[in-house]
Design a protein that fits this description.
single chain, alpha/beta, Rossmann fold, SIR2/SIRT2 'Small Domain', six-stranded parallel beta sheet, three-stranded antiparallel beta sheet, elongated
Length: about 240
C-alpha cells in the first residue's frame, strides 16, 4: 500500500478503471460469482433479444430484478474516494465496466466518466435511440403484457447495457483508449482484467509510458505487467488513498 500511495502522490494524470469488485462491497454480487445474476437468469444474447419476444421478456425480468437491487445499494468509500480524485484533478478520467450508476451517486462528474459497458439505469430505442426510463418500461410491460416499445416510433426498447454479442460502443471504446494513452498512472480497481477490449487498456497505457497498478482481492492475468499489485479489500485500501 505504501508503494501504491507513492505512485499516486507522484502521478499528475491518473486514469482509473473499475470493475465489479468495487461494487461488491456495496452489496452487489459479482455476476459470475456463486449466487450472482448468471445463476438466477440465463444469458440472453443481443441477436436472440432482437429476434424473440420470449427472449425480450426474459431479459426484462432480469433487468427489473437488477433495478430493484440497485435501488437498495449505496456507494461505498472506494466510489467516494474516486469522486474526490476527480474533483481535485488527480483523476483525469474514470473508465468503468460497471452498469450500476454508483459512481454517479458518489458524485463523480458525468463528463469525467466513460461507461464502457453502458448503464442499467435507463433504456434506449434500438431504432431511433430515444431514451426511456426503466420504470416506464416496467409499466409498459405490466400494462400490455409484452416487451416495451418506443413511445415515438414503436421500435424495440433495450436496456442501455451492452449485451453479449452486441458490438461495443465505438465512441466510448475510442475515448477509453485515448485516456489510457494519455495518463502517467493507470489504476485498475476490482476487475479481473479478462474481458476485452477493456483488458487491453493497461497495455495501451504502459506502451505510452504510464505506470500501472492493480487493486483487487484476487490475482489477475496482468499482474506481471503491474508496477504495484495490492491484493486486499478495495474499501480498506482506497480509504488509505484519500486526497489529503
Amino acid at each position: 500500500m505504501s508503494e501504491l500511495a507513492e505512485l499516486l502522490s507522484k502521478a499528475k494524470k491518473v486514469v482509473v478503471l473499475t470493475g465489479a469488485g468495487i461494487s461488491t462491497e456495496s452489496g452487489i454480487p459479482d455476476f459470475r460469482s456463486p449466487g450472482g445474476i448468471w445463476e438466477r437468469f440465463r444469458i440472453i444474447e443481443y441477436r436472440e433479444f432482437m429476434a424473440s419476444e420470449d427472449a425480450r421478456l426474459e431479459d426484462w425480468r432480469r433487468r427489473f430484478y437488477m433495478e430493484d437491487q440497485l435501488g437498495e445499494v449505496k456507494p461505498n468509500i472506494a466510489h467516494k474516494v474516486i469522486a474526490d480524485w476527480v474533483d481535485t484533478g488527480k483523476c483525469s478520467k474514470l473508465i468503468t465496466q460497471n452498469i450500476d450508476g454508483l459512481h454517479q451517486e458518489a458524485g463523480t462528474k458525468t463528463g469525467a466518466m466513460i461507461e464502457i459497458h453502458g448503464s442499467a439505469r435507463h433504456a434506449n430505442c434500438t431504432e431511433c435511440g430515444l431514451r426511456h426510463e426503466i420504470s416506464e418500461c416496467r409499466l409498459m410491460l405490466e400494462e400490455l403484457g409484452s416487451s416495451p416499445r418506443c413511445r415515438e416510433c414503436e421500435g424495440i426498447i433495450k436496456s442501455a447495457v451492452v449485451m453479449f454479442g452486441e458490438q461495443m460502443p465505438l465512441l466510448e471504446t475510442n475515448l477509453a483508449f485515448q485516456a489510457a494513452g494519455d495518463c502517467d498512472l493507470f489504476l485498475a480497481i476490482g476487475t479481473s482484467l479478462v474481458v476485452r477490449p477493456v483488458a487491453s487498456l493497461p497495455e495501451c497505457a504502459i506502451s505510452a509510458g504510464a505506470k500501472f497498478a492493480i487493486i483487487n482481492r484476487d490475482n489477475t492475468q496482468l499482474d506481471h505487467l503491474a508496477n504495484v499489485v495490492v491484493n486486499a479489500g478495495i474499501g480498506e485500501t482506497m480509504a488509505k488513498m484519500q486526497v489529503k
